[in-house]
Amino acid sequence: MTDSATSRGAGRTSPPATANDQFEAAYRGTARAGSRLAELPWETGEPQPVVVRLAAQGAFHGDILDVGCGTGDHTLHLASLGHCVTGVDFALSAINTALAKQRQRGLKAAFAVADACELAGYEAAFDCVLDCGLLHSLPVEHRSSYLWALRRATRPDAVAHILCLTDRLAAHGTFQPLSEEELRGLFGKDWKVESLTPETLVGRSAGEPTSLPCWHLTVRRLR
Length: 223
Description:
This protein is an alpha/beta fold. The chain has 7 helices and 7 strands; from the N terminus they run αααβαβαββαβαββ. Strands 3-2-1-4-5-7-6 form a 7-stranded mixed beta sheet, with helices on both faces. β2, α5 and β3 (110-113) form a beta-alpha-beta unit.
């Protein structure tokens, strides 16, 4: 931020960074030193084992949306299996990194900067959705907008796989884990809950791998 107290006058301070600002800074490598986001704890350089397993089991089909794709590891894994997949993220720096990976690997996939709470330009575009770590990163007050955008971007009978942290973990900053009741309540109107099972996500803490309890929610869009 350039609007510092020095540049704008004594007694003035910069406005607080939004969650979007914080994630963009993390991907850009300019996050505040010591911040939990600074080391991109969700970026391990490879797809999550649970996503690899789901793909091997045939969980993904048709036109796929990887929402909150980060630097593209899941998008590119699905593309390597021959799927038609689009990865979107609001952080330009994340998408630029994903595009660099795509060029290096020579895979066919689409990447775009998009707000998950709007998904403008993607009306009735997808048959399947992967959300690996986005929902628990959204501010609670933005969840309804996200669900509205997700419904608008998908076709009737579309399937969504949601992987989010469970409330066995405490909320921390931008991360807001969800309980089973919260998940079922969120998707109870326009989606049919097909399964909700405990899973594990792999993350990083102080440079070391760590296992995090998560939910795998499978929902199907109602007509």
